[in-house]
Amino acid sequence: MMKDIFQGLIEANTIFKNKEVLRPSYVPEVLPHRERQIKELASILAPALRGETPSNVFIYGKTGTGKTAVAKFMGKQLMEKGKQLGVETNFVYINCEIVDTQYRVLQNVANHFINIWEERVPFTGWPTDEVYRKLVESIESTKGVAVIVLDEVDKLKGDEVLYNLSRLNYDLDKARISIIGISNDLKFTEFLDPRVKSSLGQENMVFPPYSADELCDILGERAKKAFREDVIENNVISLCAALAAQEHGDARRALDLLRVSAEIAERMGEERVVEKHVRMAENKIEMDRVKEIVKTLPIQSKLVLMAAIIGDETYGSLNTGELFNIYRDLCRMKGINILTQRRVADLISELDMLGIINARVVSKGRYGRTREIEISTPLKIKELLTRDEAMPDVSNYKPPMQSKLL
DNA sequence: AGGTATTCACATGAAACTATTCTCTGAGTTAGG
DNA sequence: TAACTCAGAGAATAGTTTCATGTGAATACCTGT
Fold first, then answer.
1. Residues of A 226-285 whose CB lies less than 7 Å from any atom of strand B
2. What CATH class has A210-294?
3. Residue A405: is its pLDDT beyond 50?
4. Which nucleotides of B are covered by protein (CB under 7 A)?
5. For strand B, is any atom closer than 7 Å to the CB of A114?
6. Which of A91-95, A161-165, A305-309 has the highest mean pLDDT?
7. Among A265, A266, A380, A406, which residue is least crowded by beta carbons within 10 Å?
8. pTM of the prediction?
């Protein structure tokens, strides 16, 4: 009886064939509408296979334009071809959003070249130049060309790492390295040290956003592998593509949308994915995003958000001063120290940036200049916050009623 | 009526403080020779 | 004796406060008709 629980669930899976294909981490064998970029990148990296140093490259493009996918794809191809030709090639991929300090980047790269049973660089304890020395030594011992991909380079703290990596070639004798920097900030290099700029920006590539049609092709390609035959209504894919295209042609978003739609359909026990499911998926994704943000907000921001919600409920919309008063009351109730209005103003801007609240500056003439704050999602975040144990009990809290101007 | 000056209620900036996290050094500890 | 560990000094960083200056338009106050 118990063993049949899973049996039933496995058989219920009538929609997916291979869900992995739809995950953002998946690197497909074909990347539609990126042939030009792949060719260009390949021609830049090709010298590596002849044992020469390839130029360093900078890749720009908004999120979900295939930068990471193309880079990883090239890495795979390069390794294969290298093995085939008997040329020592190495490919290191580092996501700088996670590995964001100079020390950790160097440590990661160095450890890539060191076998597990050999002496690895520890998480902490070594001076940075010691790690650098170790890195040089370990790369040198490979005697080949190494391509280092730094994804989301703009997240890196300080440009010292980039400088150090760019001069790595001068310290290397037998081996060579080439750096591929990936960023979604077009203006990123403007803030860089000119030395780094010139040595890293030898080649530049820009990945344009996908159009709705192109997204359609990409989704279609993946859908073929991900789903069983004939479970997707034909307008579903174009709808997902169109929705994602509205938001700067983000392929990741489109894939998420498609995957979640199918998951919803599956969970509802239906055999086909139809438009309705996509609409529901759109909602769910937005909801999950907001939930996730709200959950991970620091305590003070949560209090500010809570104050905004309470104010929104009682006044309809509120300004900075009113919000601050409510916020102060909440802090007192919980015995948390109160931040200055200046700081709260900044927290409000942050929440606005995250898209949870809507805060725009309006001038009310004689009655000053302030922000008008509203809750921007129709979702019930309040419930989520009330359940937070760090929140004060607001069930019978009444915000101060002030004589509001009509 | 038309024009200028005030004024409100914060916005926005910069500098100064503070608390926390990172680095790095040197003393102490350990293991192998 | 060399390698390793770990505490704590000092540097870097993030989060806040303090102080200062800026802002847009409804109102108050003129001015001349």
1. none
2. mainly alpha
3. no
4. 6-14, 22-25
5. no
6. A305-309
7. A406
8. 0.75
